[in-house]
Design brief:
Blueprint: H1 15-24, H2 52-59, H3 62-95, H4 97-101, H5 111-152
Helix pairs in contact: 3-5
């Protein structure tokens, strides 16, 4: 039995194509000029462009050097520590199976399970430390440099 929406062979779009158009075009009722993300077109008030020389000047400043020093002083050691901890866990699970299999006295929980769960705890701890470090040591200096750049654009 054929429904009125179905077309006969050779008459254009198949019923499957018509169903796709009806079913998946959730914005068909909107005008063609509709922009679903207008904030991406204009963010804030219109600002003067910042000259390339201003970026070069800020990059060469002592404040920018201090900013990169503070960031790298935290990010690189923390990354190295976590990678050592992570790969240590992986290597232990591959090469030290008797150590990882020993039960630790919490029921049937073994050392591998405990160290695996500590990987998650460590991830959350590092995230918290990173956020604290950024808001305390990086963001104020970054805001100063941004204000300097935006002031140079005028």
């Amino acid at each position: 039995m054929t429904t009125p929406d179905e077309r006969t062979p050779g008459s254009g779009a198949s019923s499957h194509e018509q169903a796709d158009l009806r079913t998946y075009d959730t914005e068909r009722h909107l005008p063609a000029s509709h922009n679903p993300l207008p904030a991406l077109n204009t963010v804030g008030s219109a600002k003067d462009p910042i000259a390339e020389e201003a970026f070069v000047e800020v990059q060469g400043s002592a404040e920018f050097a201090e900013l990169t020093k503070r960031f790298r002083g935290f990010a690189f050691p923390m990354t190295a520590a976590f990678l050592i901890w992570y790969f240590g866990y992986v290597l232990l699970s591959v090469y030290a199976k008797p150590f990882m299999a020993q039960e630790i006295g919490l029921g049937h929980v073994n050392m591998g399970t405990l160290l695996g769960l500590l990987q998650f705890v460590t991830t959350f701890l590092i995230t918290w430390l990173y956020m604290r470090h950024m808001s305390k040591n990086i963001d104020p200096l970054s805001a100063k440099l941004r204000a300097k750049l935006e002031g140079a654009g005028k």
